[in-house]
Amino acid sequence: MQLTDTHPDPAIGDDVVMLTVPADGGYLGVLRTATAGLAARLHFALDEIEDLRIAVDEACAMLLAIATRGAELDCRFAVTEDALTVEVTVTTVRGAKLPAESSFAWKVLTALTTSAAAEATGQRATIRLVTRRTGA
Question: Which CATH number fits the domain 15-132, given the four candidates 3.20.20.150, 3.30.565.10, 3.40.605.10, 3.10.105.10?
Answer without folding.
Answer: 3.30.565.10
